[in-house]
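Researcher: We're teaching a course module on how sequence relates to structure. For the next exercise, students receive a sequence and then see the predicted structure as tokens, so they can try to spot secondary structure elements on their own. Here is the exercise chain.
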Amino acid sequence: MAINRRFFLIGTASLGLTACSDPKHPFNREAGSSIDEGGFGNPTMHNTMLQSGQISLAEVMTRRFHAEVPSMVNFAFDSAHLDEEARSILRMQAHWMRQFPELRFTIYGHTDAVGTAAYNVRLGQRRANAVMRYLVSQNVPRSSIIAVVSRGETQPLIASEGYEPANRRTVTEISGLVRRHTRMDGQYARIIYRQYVSSATEQHVPE
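Model: And here is the predicted structure for the students to work with:
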């Protein structure tokens, strides 16, 4: 009887190992595999590149900015007036900018090719100034905007010598940090931690 019991236990263990090696078996996966985003190693590589200075915090935050908010607003012909759509986009920009006081921004004004080059430089400056003033009115510190620049008609999105709405725009870009570092030294971790803390809210517990 003891021998039979021993063989029974060995057989049961063998079946368990077989089940664990079966790729279709639901219990054969390592912990956390169900939430694997398919980029194993990328987070570590990304952090290593930040710490070694191969990419900068400004680059990382620029990618975030463009991924999370629209960076561009458009204008009517020969106008620096901000319509409701433009103001809505700028409110999103302002909300994002206020979260990152470490960052500094530049606003670029652009025009289409209608009119003289000199006039379009002035028009691009008016557009950039209008955006800057609106962002400041939305509680973005003026010191966060280090430059307001006109590109005039020199950098069109669409090559055209005539009326082109897509070229009548401003673009908000991240220019850098308050202090430049060759290494990140935990700056991005502090940003993420601050976001985590500020996003925490009390959960309502029904009485």
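Model: If you want an answer key for the exercise: The longest helix spans residues 117-137. The radius of gyration is 28 Å.
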